Amino acid sequence: MPFKVEGNKFGSFFLITVPTLHLREMTNLTNQPKILSSEIGSKFLTADGKFGLDVSLFNSKLKDDHITITLYPSYLTRTGNADTRSRGVELGLFWQLTDQWKLKQDLIYLDTKVTKVPAESNNITAKGNRLPQAAKWSGSLSVAYSSQPFNLGLIGKSQLQSDLSVRYVGSRYAQPDNVQKN
Questions:
Q1: How far is the C-alpha of 25 from the C-alpha of 3, rounded, in Å?
Q2: How far apart are the first and last CA of the chain?
Q3: HEC profile for 76-111?
Q4: Residues 68/79, Cβ–Cβ less than 8 Å
Q5: 10 Å Cβ neighbour count for 105?
Q6: Could you read off the pLDDT tens digit of each residue along the chain, which spans 182 residues?
Q7: What share of the chain is helix, strand, coil (3-state, %, to 5)?
Q8: What secondary structure letter does DSSP report for 173?
Q9: N or C: which end of the chain has fewer CB within 10 A?
Q10: Is the peptide bond before 73 cis (omega within 30 degrees of 0)?
């Protein structure tokens, strides 16, 4: 079933931080960002509960999003408005291999873009840039173990649990100007 949300993002100020000075400065960003977000997905679980699969597609559009860039070497920030869009696919699965062992996997594809930039924000970002800190690909793989319950003396019934996980996050831009990649 599709899911749609409309609303506002909070904030119309930013905080400038200098080693000895903290100045909250009202900006000309008087329009609160507006968001339109949609998601559709599906879940599958086998009758015995040993295998599950989740898939979802999502799309978010923000009008007058506040985008901040850090100015080096001063570490001061500058914020401007821009319209942005984020869309992608999430895929997750788990497989209960035995009563004690479980395998889990997540994979995410994320496509972000600045869709419109007013003239006063051209020194912060540009139309067509990707949003900062938003990797195109990310995912994880996990193997989990849960022992059978056992008696641990005065503590009583106990259970040993462990989880070994690996997480991948692809390269992404550090700033909205799309100059430096992480």
A1: 37
A2: 36
A3: EEEEEEEEEEEEEEEEEEEEECCCCEEEEEEEEEEE
A4: yes
A5: 14
A6: 455 555 555 554 444 444 444 444 444 445 678 888 999 999 999 999 999 999 999 999 988 887 877 777 777 777 888 899 999 999 999 999 999 999 999 999 999 999 998 888 777 888 999 998 899 999 999 999 999 989 888 888 899 999 999 999 999 988 888 888 87
A7: 5, 60, 35
A8: B
A9: N
A10: yes
Q: What is the DSSP letter of 32?
A: P
d(CA 72, CA 63): 28
Give how far the C-alpha of residue 68 lies from the chain's centroid of Cα atoms, to the nearest Å: 17
- Residue 156: the pLDDT is 86
- Torsions phi, psi for 8 (to 5 deg): -115, 150
Distance between CA atoms of 148 and 161, rounded to whole angstroms?
A: 10
- pTM score, two decimals? 0.75
Residues in the chain: 182
Q: Please, are residues 66 and 79 in contact by the beta-carbon 8 Å criterion?
A: yes
Q: Do 97 and 49 touch, CB atoms closer than 8 A?
A: no
CA distance 158 to 156: 6
3-class secondary-structure state, position 153: helix
Q: How many alpha carbons fall within 13 Å on the CB side of residue 139?
A: 13
